[in-house]
Amino acid sequence: MVKVLLTGGSGFIAAHIVEILLQNNFDTVVTVRSEEKGKRIIDAHPDIPKGKLSYVIVKDVAEDGAFDEAVKSDPPFDYVLHTASPFHFNVGDPVKDFLDPAIKGTTGILKAIKAYAPSVKRVVVTSSFAAIINSKQHPKLYNETVWNPILWEEALDHANVYRGSKTFAEKAAWDFVEKEKPNFDISTINPPLVLGPIVHYLNSLDSLNTSNQRVRDLIQGKFKESLPPTGTFIWVDVRDVALAHVQAIKVQGAGGQRFFVVADYFSNKKIADTVRETHPQLESKLPPADVADDFPGKIFQIDNSNSKQILGIEYRPFKETISDTVDSLLEVGA
Fold this sequence. Notes:
Elements: E1 3-7, H1 12-23, E2 27-32, H2 35-43, E3 53-57, E4 79-82, H3 94-116, E5 122-126, E6 141-142, H4 152-155, H5 161-180, E7 185-190, E8 193-195, H6 210-219, E9 234-237, H7 238-250, E10 258-260, E11 264-265, H8 268-278, E12 301-302, H9 305-311, H10 318-331
Parallel strand pairs: 1-2, 1-4, 2-3, 4-5, 5-7, 6-12, 7-10, 8-9
Antiparallel strand pairs: 9-11
Family: Belongs to the NAD(P)-dependent epimerase/dehydratase family. Dihydroflavonol-4-reductase subfamily.
GO molecular function: oxidoreductase activity, acting on the CH-OH group of donors, NAD or NADP as acceptor
InterPro entries: Epimerase_deHydtase, NAD(P)-bd_dom_sf, NAD(P)_dehydrat-like
C-alpha cells in the first residue's frame, strides 16, 4: 500500500488533494497546526476506513526540526506532498517574518526526509507562478524554463516579498537536491491565480484563499460600480492543481520537473460576465454589463504542454470553475 504525507492539510489546495489521494486508495497522513483542524478533516470523511486517513500536528513549519517527528512513520512513507507554507505574517521585517520562514519551511522538510524517512522516493513541492513571473519585463512566452529574476535586495520591498519568498524557497529546494543528493527526487507545481470551489468543512467566507476573495466580493455586490484591476491575467482550477500534485507522484517521468500548471487567460470582467451567465439571479449585485475590461491588447503567451503531456492534466473550462466556485460560496452564505 502506498503511503503519502501531505503537509498543510487544511489549506485550500491541500483539501482537494486529500480527496484525490483517498480516491486513489493511498494511505494519507496530513500535517495540521491544531487538533481541531485535524479532527475536522477526519470527521469530514466518515466513510474512510480507520487508519486510512490520519493527522499529525506541526504547529510552525518554519521552526528548526518542525517536521522531524512527522516524517517518521510505520509503515514508512513513500511520497511527500509539501503544500504547507509558513503563517501569513504582518511583515515588519521581510527577512525574519517572511523570507526566512518560507525558505526554512521548504528546506526543513527536505532535511527531515533525508534524515528520518529514507523510504521516500519523491517530494512534490507547491511552488507558484510567482517563482516564474518577470513583472519588469514579461518574456514572449512563459514556461517551466523561466525564473523570476528577483534579487534578494528587491525582495526586501514589501510589495515584492511574497514573490521573492516563493522564488527563493523553490530555488532552495532544487539546490538541496543537487547538493545533498538524497534518496528522493522532487517535482514542483507552479500555478498562477487559483480559483475553484471551497471545501466547506475547512473554509468560511472570512478564510478564503486570496484568489477566491474577488469572486466573493463580486457576488456580494462590492464591485457594483467598477471592477478592481485584475492583476495577473492567468488562472487555473484548484481541482486541476490538486490533481497535478497527485499525478506528480504517480507518473514516473515527473521526477526532476517543474510544472507550470495554468489553464488560460481571464480578467475580472470575464468573471463578472460568467457569473451573469451562470447565476442570473445575482444580476443586481454585479457591475454593469458594459463595465470596462482591463485585459491588455497584447499579452505574453503561456505554455502548459508539460503538464498535459507528462501529468495528463485536462484543464477545466472557465465557466465550470466560476459556476462551481459561486455555488460553493453561496452554500456558506455569500
